[in-house]
Design brief:
The chain is of the alpha+beta class. Helix content is 29%, strand content 29%. The chain contains four helices and nine strands; from the N terminus they run E-E-E-E-E-H-E-H-E-H-E-E-H. The strands form two sheets. A seven-stranded mixed β-sheet has the order 1-2-9-8-5-6-7, with helices on one face. Strands 3-4 form a two-stranded antiparallel ribbon. Strand 3 and strand 4 form a beta hairpin. Helix 1 packs across helix 4. The longest helix is centred in the middle third of the chain and has 17 residues. The radius of gyration is 14 Å and the shape is globular. The relative contact order is 0.24. The N terminus is likely disordered.
Length: 153
C-alpha cells in the first residue's frame, strides 16, 4: 500500500494532494456545462460510477439522498464510464440521481487523471483543492461521514 493509503473494509482511501490539471469545463449528459477543475473553493464530491456495476446501483439511492441533504454546501458531480451513453442516461433516470450533473467519460480520460482504477469510487475535494480518493463501495453512513468532514475543511 502506498504512502497515504489506508484500507477500510473493501475500500482504499488515499489522500492525494491537489487536483490534476484537466479540462476546466466539460459538457454533462444533460447538456449543461460542468466544471471539474478549479471548483472555486466549493467543497466537491465526485462520484465515479458505471451503469453496469451492481455496487454503483446499490450506492445510487444513498448518493441521491445525500445530495439533497448537502445540496447547499457541497457540489456533487457524477463521472460515468465503462458503458455507453444510453446506459448512462437510463441509469441516471432509473436510480433517480438527477439532482446533480453527470459527465460521460467515454474514453476514461477523467478516470485516468484522477487515478480511478475501479468503480464505484469517490474523490472529495476541499475548499483548498486538496483531494481524498476512495476506491471501492461506501455505505450511506460512510459517505455521510466523508461529506461532513469535507464541510469542516
Amino acid at each position: 500500500m502506498a504512502c497515504g493509503d489506508m484500507k477500510q473494509g473493501n475500500t482504499n482511501v488515499q489522500t492525494t494532494g491537489t487536483q490534476p490539471d484537466i479540462a476546466t469545463e466539460i459538457e454533462a449528459v444533460d447538456g449543461s456545462i460542468v466544471s471539474v477543475s478549479g471548483f472555486n473553493g466549493t467543497p466537491t464530491a465526485m462520484w465515479f460510477w458505471s451503469p453496469n456495476w451492481g455496487q454503483c446501483r446499490a450506492e445510487a439511492s444513498a448518493v441521491a439522498e445525500l445530495k439533497r441533504t448537502y445540496e447547499n454546501s457541497i457540489q456533487f458531480i457524477g463521472v460515468a464510464s465503462r458503458g455507453d451513453l444510453s446506459q448512462v442516461e437510463e441509469f441516471i433516470d432509473r436510480y433517480a440521481v438527477t439532482d446533480f450533473p453527470h459527465v460521460f467519460d467515454e474514453k476514461g480520460d477523467i478516470w485516468r487523471q484522477y487515478k480511478i482504477s475501479s468503480q464505484p469510487a469517490w474523490v472529495f475535494v476541499d475548499t483548498n483543492g486538496n483531494q481524498e480518493r476512495v476506491i471501492g463501495s461506501l455505505g450511506k453512513s460512510e459517505i455521510r461521514t466523508k461529506l461532513t468532514d469535507l464541510q469542516k475543511k
